[in-house]
Amino acid sequence: MRVWTEQEVTTLLSMWPTATYLQIGNALHRSRHSVCDKAKWLRDKGLLEGTKNRRNAGQSVKPDQQDFDAVKMDYCRKHHMDVTQLSARFKGDNQLAAELYRLAQVAKMTRLRPRELDNRPAPF
Fold it and tell me: What is the reported pTM?
């Protein structure tokens, strides 16, 4: 059995709100069953919110202001702009707003995940 890497868990968390188990598995080159098991394990540990109802899975993770701030700063660094320019762009671009919200959700889940679980394989 292959151990889940930090990057794979982060990808699962970022895709979780909108993707199916099969889509996540295809992106990670893992089976649907492997993704289901890891998602169940993460939910049991309190690291992943939601249920099997994929439509409601992403609605329960509400990012904090610190998560938004971190995401905005990263975005500004990557795109060589300041926060004022981002704010102006943010007001007229719903896709940018949705992307920043999704990234803030991932940032929160990553921040809340205990470090001791990062390198430990799932107990199944």
Answer: 0.46
Structural domain of residue 96, as residue ranges?
Answer: 65-111
Distance CA 36, CA 96 (A): 30
In angstroms, rounded to a whole number, what is the distance separating the alpha carbons of residues 23 and 69?
Answer: 29
Residue pLDDT, tens place only, 44-59: 887 777 665 443 444 4
**Alpha carbon distances (Å) from 5 to 1, 8, 28, 29:** 12, 5, 10, 13
Same domain, 70 and 56: no
